[in-house]
């Protein structure tokens, strides 16, 4: 099956999902990110690689961290950036979306960074844009958030190096989490020894086993011998949807406290994609503690997004050569 | 016309480059920067000959991948090691080292990158081989050997079991 994210030569042209991508490609993204990370120590923190390119942040759903790091990433590559925050109107979505795209195409943009509350939105856009435009998925519904997963992998690699030796536990609302889904695909592609998901039955997908993960409903058992702990944000609407009794009860069962953290390996790192709910999925003392790498994740988000943007726009040279 | 260089001549060429570098930069507390990958090997060899104390800091390395002028034509290059300048370049005398100077485009990219680190007092360019085919007004200050090759001939430095120059004809090697 052909992967519509890739060029004929197997280079990344759109970045829509981790699913279906091979390990060397994920490693390539992390290697480039490693190079871009070194820029932050320089007087001039940007490189001229994407000078003259125009990148549009097309956000149909609110975001501060993701949009800001995409914008910084584009600017550090010397691209011009436009931020569009488009509130979705459920009724006019289909048609207005394509109209918006065609208008932006007419302005000779080169890349769309798309966030949307509908699963599949980025892929839909990738199917309909002109061939000279690359699309990066910055989160679509419950489906995927591939750049978040890659910055998480990059953060893990920075601390732990060898993926096959690792046990990684993801705690929380896996069912509704595009972050968890992309993380699981990335972790298994990179050959992580054991992937665990920990959470209440109502928040775990029924197809967990087919994803190749081990399921735990109990923190004590789930965190034993773990090297990397990823906590997920608990969205308030899950409580309203009767999937959970209360935030307090959730914290008692699945909140990451110092006590529970001590069950994991002593050098385990604690991650969270943000924004964090202190006292709901994670205790403040853990979020701010010595094992937390949460703010590092944010920093790495810039370098990883630079890597993805430059690789995808680099692949455009192949498309142009063919046309 | 072809001027072949015997690999046995390499130590001599490096020695004469080192002598010239000594003459022009001694007393200026210079800093040395090699361009990945061949330039770094030559720079390492020069540091060995001149002695580490000649330079004011460990060898710096440049990966000019993000400063190339062919991104829109051929996209990203495969990865080598990141740039690493373990010193401040402001107001310093730099010795920039590469293996082969041909078009001058690599040096253009390297200079641009260096200036994103700061404002050096001077940059001296040393190359092992200078060949015909300049496309920019860039010339080396210190040259191991100048050669004249036809457009279909290529020259490349390798470093398996010691430095070695390889000449190929009409290849796809760059």
What does this structure look like?
The complex is a heterodimer of chains A (323) and B (174). With 323 residues, chain A is of the alpha/beta class. Chain A folds into two domains: 2-144 and 299-322, 3-Layer(aba) Sandwich (Rossmann fold), CATH 3.40.50.1370; 146-293, Rossmann fold (3-Layer(aba) Sandwich). Helices cover 41% and strands 14% of the residues of chain A. In chain A, the strands form two sheets. Chain A has a five-stranded parallel sheet with strand order 7-6-5-8-9. Chain A has a four-stranded parallel sheet with strand order 2-1-3-4, sandwiched between helices. With 174 residues, chain B is an alpha/beta fold. Chain B has one domain (7-173): Rossmann fold, CATH 3.40.50.2020. Helices cover 26% and strands 27% of the residues of chain B. In chain B, helix 1 (10-25) packs across helix 2 (38-50). The mean pLDDT of chain B is 91. Classes of the chains: A alpha/beta (323), B alpha/beta (174).
Short key terms for the protein model shown above:
heterodimer; A: 323 residues; alpha/beta; Rossmann fold; 2 domains; five-stranded parallel beta sheet; four-stranded parallel beta sheet; 12 helices; 9 strands; B: 174 residues; two-stranded antiparallel ribbon; 4 helices
Summarize the structure.
Chain A is 41% helix and 14% strand. By secondary structure, chain A is an alpha/beta fold. In chain A, helix 2 crosses helix 12.
Amount of beta strand of chain A: 5-15%
Radius of gyration of chain A: 20 Å
Radius of gyration of chain B: 16 Å
Q: In CATH's first tier, which class of chain B applies? A: Alpha Beta
Strand order of the largest sheet of chain A: 7-6-5-8-9
Total strands of chain B: the figure is 7
How many strands, what sense, and barrel or not for the largest sheet of chain A? 5 strands, parallel
Shape verdict of chain B: globular
Overall geometric form of chain A = globular
The rounded distance between the terminal residues' Cα atoms of chain B is: 19 Å
* DSSP strand content of chain B: 25-35%
Gap between N and C termini of chain A: 23 Å
| CATH architecture name of chain B | 3-Layer(aba) Sandwich
User: How many runs of DSSP E, i.e. beta strands of chain A?
Assistant: 9
String of helices and strands of chain A: HEHEHEHEHEHEEHEHHHEHH
Assigned CATH architecture of the largest domain in chain A: 3-Layer(aba) Sandwich
The averaged pLDDT of chain B comes out at 91
Q: Percent of residues of chain B in helical segments?
A: 25-40%
User: What number of structural domains do the residues of chain A give?
Assistant: 2
The structure class of chain B reads: alpha/beta
Could you state the order of secondary-structure elements of chain B as H and E?
Answer: HEHEHEHEEEE
